[in-house]
């Protein structure tokens, strides 16, 4: 799966799809100005998301990053 994201737009699209599928929000609810916590992402879901992103990007993404850099 590594390397399937070629830019910021691809990553944004992947993240929106992920949130819609796994968190239950709608695409219209995903606002780049909202934190993941505001979208309903729990700490457990953030750990899972960080693992998915790490695999996708081929580098470590810490779930703490979601709270420190919303």
Automatic annotation (TrEMBL):
Domain Carrier, by residue range, is 9-70
Among InterPro entries, the record links this protein to:
ACP-like_sf (IPR036736), PP-bd_ACP (IPR009081)
Full protein name = Acyl carrier protein
SUPFAM superfamilies, per database record:
ACP-like (SSF47336)
